Amino acid sequence: MTHDSEKLIPLDWNQFPLDRSWKEVVVKFDVTVTTKSLSLNLIPDDQGNRHELIMKLHKDGLSDREISEYLNDCNILTPTGLEYYPKLIWETRKKLKNREKRRKDYDVQMGRMSFYLKK
């Protein structure tokens, strides 16, 4: 890591002096990270457990109606204290899929590379 007070001499990629050590060279490059990821990935444990259960039941082949009936039969309420209904299960699954997609959706691009010789 260089300090601002340290003097650097810009080099073209083909001007690297062969009589110098790499310890005398500073390489800088631009990195661009583009993401739609959420900045806050915190979900309370009880809500996360409900989400996992809903996705597991769906993966096991239960319909949204069957999942809502199962949750209600087990006295598992929504975060607002209401009973589940099929449309709410569908919306929850959709939001979870979108959330997972955003979590994985990023792009990293390496930009221009610059070489400098420490003075």
Structure description:
With 119 residues, the protein is of the alpha+beta class. It has helices at 45-59, 64-73, 86-104, and strands at residues 8-11, 25-35, 106-118. Strands 1-3-2 form a three-stranded antiparallel beta sheet. Helix 2 packs across helix 3 (86-104). It is rod-shaped, with a radius of gyration of 27 Å. The two termini are 15 Å apart. The mean pLDDT is 82.
Keywords summarizing the entry:
119 residues, alpha+beta, three-stranded antiparallel β-sheet, 3 strands, 37% helix
Give the helix/strand layout.
Elements: E1 8-11, E2 25-35, H1 45-59, H2 64-73, H3 86-104, E3 106-118
Antiparallel strand pairs: 1-3, 2-3
Widest β-sheet, arrangement of strands:
1-3-2
Strand segment count: 3
The general outline is: rod-shaped
Poorly predicted sequence stretches spanning 5 or more consecutive residues:
none
Q: Strand portion, in percent? A: 15-25%
Helix content, binned percent: 25-40%
Count the helices. How many? 3
Indicate the structural class: alpha+beta
| Sheet of most strands | 3 strands, antiparallel
